[in-house]
Amino acid sequence: MTNIWRAGLQRGGIELRHLLRNGKELSGHLTNVVVVLLVAAYVSDDVPGTRTPMAHLMLAGFAAYLLFQIGLINLPQTLVTEREEGTLLRLRATPGGIPAYLVAKCLLVVVVAVGTLAVLLATAALLVDGPLPHGPGDWLTLLWVTTLGLLAVVPLGAAVGAVLPNPREALALVMLPTMGLLFISGTVFPITSLPVPVQQVAAVFPLKWMAQGLRSALLPDTARTAEAAGSWELPMVALVLTAWAVLGFLLAVPLLRRAARRESGSHLSARHRKAVQSGALPS
After folding, report:
1. How far apart are CA 31 and CA 29, in angstroms?
2. What is the pTM of this model?
3. Buried-most residue among 22, 129, 217, 267 (CB within 10 A)?
4. Residues 97-147: pLDDT tens digits?
């Protein structure tokens, strides 16, 4: 187990260095931050029933969505692409290769997600008077909600990436449900403005609880009157995110191992020939 963690952390460090040298990929994460800031800059109303700016609620919600997106959109796409390139086939022959691979991806996603969150909150505070935690308790809440939220979505993203068919279909298959969750989880507007059945559906998934936990850290206590229960429900936030984290880890490792077992040199060659014939790769 020690060797697995060491190999995973080493691989994760290598992937982080490659990411920092890839300007195109870095600019994609920064573009998301710019879009969020532009939207927040044009929102001027208050949250109904409170004196909290609606822009602050949206910034807290979009902060949760960016964490969710990195785990459940970016990560599955990366996994599917690397599976197509033969990475899982090589890992199959490496002792502890799959768990170490998952550790590396967790490290990569955590660093990218925390970095993106820090950039969003800092630039929002400077440019559009965005919210920040007001005391040590709020900073602690921001830390544990972010940590549990990533633990909930990263393994789940790895499990999703293990079963998606190919990179060309991965984005379409993952984007639609995640965009749906964006609009029903209280990230764009107060969740109390949605029908009760929609609120109940949103409560099953981690994004709603990630957004609620971040609102508790970033918004004043008076804003909790706009929550469905009239409070932040932090114990429930912790419980739901922990349950999703456990479920994700239970699914991710066996699904990645299954995907690796199904890989073979002939399958890899066949996919390559098909990509060349379709024009996706040069001959």
Report:
1. 5
2. 0.84
3. 217
4. 777 777 888 888 888 888 989 999 999 989 888 888 988 999 999 999 999
